[in-house]
């Protein structure tokens, strides 16, 4: 009995409504006076509750004096409740104001699986362009994802260090050295000029990445990528002249502005 009342309360019926419906289900039908007497409560409370339940469609009221009330069969009652709840749920779902939860401006991802799962989802959703600056080891892991994106018409721009270029294209000139003690391979990916990942991976360091849609970071990565490709094109066109003036791979030129000491400090 208590368990039944509990579930009726959970479905939105008050304690008085629940007790009256259970009593009517037990007795079959009864007048308001009879229900009040059996429950030991005031007739005014019972009459108002009977009227409310009847208006909601859960009770049937017979003609005559005194009026007799009976509750719906359990299967009829539950079907009615289910329909009303379904209608309410559908209305809430369609009418509730929606606001996209704010993503953090920058967030970190750690671990090979987490990084590549996150990256593969973005590559699969790419619609216009993917810019990739990556090492050969990571390029092999992403090659299928990039090929599928290219096959569906996404523009693919890439730079691959540490070996020949993938997809039968030449590898651009590698970028300038980065500061820090980490011995991992740095990589960056920009998708549709709105989402980017900047990370590091290697045998001697944990795989980790920073993800953001901040336009400043996206712009910086795109500018860096463009500069690398411009320098690569210059090297292809003016290789001997550039090498004679600045050294192979622009080592002499870059050394004027960048140097990495054993401790990672700028020289």
TrEMBL record:
Lineage: superkingdom: Bacteria
UniProt cross-references to Pfam families, sorted A to Z: TrmB
Keywords, alphabetical: Coiled coil
UniProt xrefs under SUPFAM superfamilies: Winged helix' DNA-binding domain
UniProt xrefs under CDD domains: PLDc_like_TrmB_middle
Transcription regulator TrmB N-terminal domain mapped to chain residues: 8-75
Key word Glycosyltransferase present: no
Coiled coil: 109-152
The keyword Oxidoreductase belongs to this UniProt entry's keyword annotation: no
Record's protein name: TrmB family transcriptional regulator
Organism: Paenibacillus xylanilyticus
């Amino acid at each position: 009995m208590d368990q039944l009342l509990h579930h009726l309360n959970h479905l939105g019926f008050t304690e008085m409504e629940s007790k009256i419906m259970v009593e009517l289900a037990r007795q079959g039908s009864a007048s308001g006076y009879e229900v009040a007497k059996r429950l030991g409560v005031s007739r005014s409370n019972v009459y108002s509750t009977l009227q409310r339940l009847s208006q909601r469609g859960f009770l049937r009221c017979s003609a005559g004096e005194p009026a007799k009330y009976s509750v719906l069969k359990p299967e009829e009652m539950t079907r009615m409740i289910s329909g009303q709840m379904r209608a309410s749920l559908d209305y809430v779902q369609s009418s509730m104001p929606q606001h996209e939860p704010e993503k953090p401006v920058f967030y970190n991802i750690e671990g090979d699986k987490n990084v590549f799962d996150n990256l593969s989802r973005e590559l699969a959703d790419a619609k216009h362009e993917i810019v990739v600056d990556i090492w050969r080891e990571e390029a092999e892991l992403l090659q299928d994802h990039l090929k599928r994106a290219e096959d569906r018409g996404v523009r693919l721009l890439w730079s691959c260090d540490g070996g020949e270029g993938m997809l039968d294209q030449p590898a651009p000139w590698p970028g300038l050295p980065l500061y820090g003690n980490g011995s991992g391979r740095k990589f960056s990916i920009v998708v549709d000029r709105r989402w980017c990942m900047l990370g590091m991976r290697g045998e001697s360091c944990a795989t980790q990445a920073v993800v953001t849609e901040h336009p400043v970071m996206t712009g910086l990565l795109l500018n860096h990528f463009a500069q690398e490709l411009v320098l690569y094109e210059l090297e292809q066109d003016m290789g001997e002249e550039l090498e004679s003036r600045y050294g192979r791979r622009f080592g002499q030129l870059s050394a004027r502005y960048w140097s990495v000491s054993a401790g990672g400090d700028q020289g």
